[in-house]
Amino acid sequence: MTRRSLLSITDLDRAEIARILRVGNRFAEVMQRDIKKVPTLRGRTIINMFFEASTRTSTSFELAGKRLSADVVNVKGSGSSVEKGETLKDTVITLNSYAPDVLVIRHASAGACQMAARHTDAAVINAGDGKHEHPTQTLLDLYTIEREVGPLDGLHIAFVGDVAHSRVARSGIRGFQMMGARVSLIGPPTLLPRDAEDALGVGTSTDVRDVADADVVYVLRMQLERMGPGGFVPSLREYAMTYGIDHARLRPGQRVMHAGPINRGVEISGELADDPKTLIERQAANGMVVRMAVLYDLLAGPAGGAEPAEAPLGALAVP
Amino acid sequence: MSARLVQRPGPAASLVIRGARVLDPAAGIDEERDLVVRDGVVGGEPGGLEVVDAEGMVVVPGFVDPHVHLRTPGREDLEDIATGSLAAAAGGFVTILAMPNTSPVVDTASVLGALLERGEQEAAVRVGFLAAITVGQRGQELTEQAEMAALGAAGFSDDGHPVSDARVMRRALQYQRITGLPLVLHEEDVRLSGTGVAHEGAVASRLGLEGIPSISESVAVARDAALAEYEGGWIHVCHVSAAETVEEIRRAKARGVRITAEVTPHHLALTDEAIVSLDAARHKMNPPLRGDSDRQALREALRDGTLDCVATDHAPHDADEKEVPFEEAPFGITGLETAFAVCNTALVAPGHLPLELLVRRMSADPAAALGLPVPTLVEGAVADVALVDPAARVVVGQDGFQSKSRNSAWLGDELLGRVALTIAGGRIAWRT
Lengths: 319, 432
Fold this sequence. Notes:
The complex is a heterodimer. By secondary structure, chain A is an alpha/beta fold. Chain A has helices at 14-30, 56-67, 88-96, 112-117, 135-148, 167-178, 196-200, 224-227, 236-243, 270-273, 280-299, 311-314; strands spanning 45-50, 71-76, 102-107, 123-129, 156-160, 182-186, 203-205, 216-219, 255-258. Chain A contains 12 helices and 9 strands. Chain B has a single domain (62-376), classed as TIM Barrel (Alpha-Beta Barrel). Chain B has helices at 81-90, 109-122, 145-151, 166-179, 190-193, 202-207, 215-231, 243-254, 265-269, 280-283, 292-304, 319-322, 339-348, 355-362, 364-370, and strands at 15-24, 29-38, 41-42, 50-53, 58-61, 63-68, 93-98, 126-129, 183-185, 198-199, 211-212, 234-237, 258-263, 309-310, 385-395, 414-424, 427-431. In chain B, the strands form 4 sheets. In chain B, strands 1, 2, 4, 5, 15, 16 and 17 form a 7-stranded mixed beta sheet that branches. A 4-stranded parallel beta sheet of chain B has the order 9-12-13-14, with helices on both faces. In chain B, a hairpin with a 2-residue loop joins strand 16 (414-424) and strand 17 (427-431). At the A-B interface, helix 4 and helix 7 of A face helix 6 of B.
């Protein structure tokens, strides 16, 4: 049986997202216990395939799998047969022969997960593909906002900065909208996607002062590694002056998010990044429980067919 | 000078096509009657000839494709002259022009000469070869075009590697006065395209794909139309994809520039909405599938003649090259075997274009645009004939492909239109 996959945030509907966030809440309770491991996915195999640099996503996926008692194997781009020129297709076919339940894939190219899903029976989780999507980031962002700010309905979230290269924004826009939030994009005209209003149903602005209107200011990393030569802004210094977010550009009560890693002094001031009132550290911490919830949902949740919707967490009694 | 078209030897066709609609719009022929081909020539006595029952079908002048990649020399694993020309025959084409972006590039008389010789052995239909405008298609020095023209080059093209230096393009247009052959231009400002992989528009914005803006095509056409006007030159614009480009061509034609242009079946039939599946084998090509308003503009321009003709840009790739993440895959899809069915399904059946006009745009018009012999059903002409059944339903790829490659945008899809018989240069090239 081919399992459900999570390639795009739009693979989920509003009810499914809400369900995953609820399950995340219950795993968060488990994480308060002395022993943080539950037997839910014992005997399941998860292969993490990270072909692009990652700290948060790879660590939290690995820990998520292990705390659910799954067998977790990590394959990296460097040190694997990819270095010998093996194609992604062949790598996927090879790993599929070990009958994994989940492949978690991070890749530098859009469409890598779609392609991989054509060659495996395992559930594929997109852990970030190029500039395309990063759905589990959006789920943990939603989880963080719900817990720390409140219900998404009617909230105004502004993405600020390098939207063009951001898979975090690409998934976030649609995920936030699905849960009832209003989204706008603020950034230099060279880094806003073409036809964004029509394509994404968002407002756009090139004036950083428009962050004043937002409840949540979501600061995007300047993705220098994806920009190539030619430059989208004259200099990082000018970018920081015109679009960098610091305390002076915020009004009281606004909450700040950033998916990390941070370019201090570029898109966000060091002082603001260190301010405990931002949600940045909460995002990182919540990543693990939300990824536990995603793994649970794909493998043991209602559509996975193994157990009824509400029972399994009750069965999470520490062994 | 004119193109040398080569074809393998074979027996002259003699048969009677019975009961079909004989349709040659360029010659003013449209009637239901038998069409006799005797000794490879249209007309003559039907007595004693094999009869092909063609009730309900349409006999048309064979199609002409000015834009084909035969991948030879260098990538014969993807296509060679024999398979590419057979794919052409299966699509009803009687004449095709092969692009020179091979390995090595067709940029010397010796490479061109070797291809012409092979074509004489292998080609199922008439094949002509375009040679490069610049050495190695590097955009710097002109190739020895007088020598290659004398040998029979069909024209000159740096397809896939646009001539970005305006001074080099200007020299090529001046030098054209010696050869009298068309400059066939892949129009793209590669700096504007950057590392783009899809049309810059709403779909690419949603998918996070690097965009290829429409203006990367239209500014290149605007520049070369101005150069051609200034030098009194002749340019043919390849695979027009954007509404902005159509406007540039319309304006250039209005002021008398000698400019012709082609459009592919896939740009006429599909839009960038198709790429959401991120299946590169089907939908990654350059120029990319564009928006619905572009598609509308292309259809209108093909109707009114701003775009002169249909060309496939048949670009074979193997499955492994294409089965990689969308962004990493090479550009190009095949097209010879599906061109008529795609246009018939997307344009004729829904009433966007009459069959008569499609036939012109696939036969007489491309031939005229590139200065090639015009296929015709007039009595006494060498038989260049396609027998098509516009009502037949075919599933693309169900019976395999004649091409070595199967990277078709319509693989597994049902289309309307089958080619039952192709006679090229008086010889039977394809028959189901």
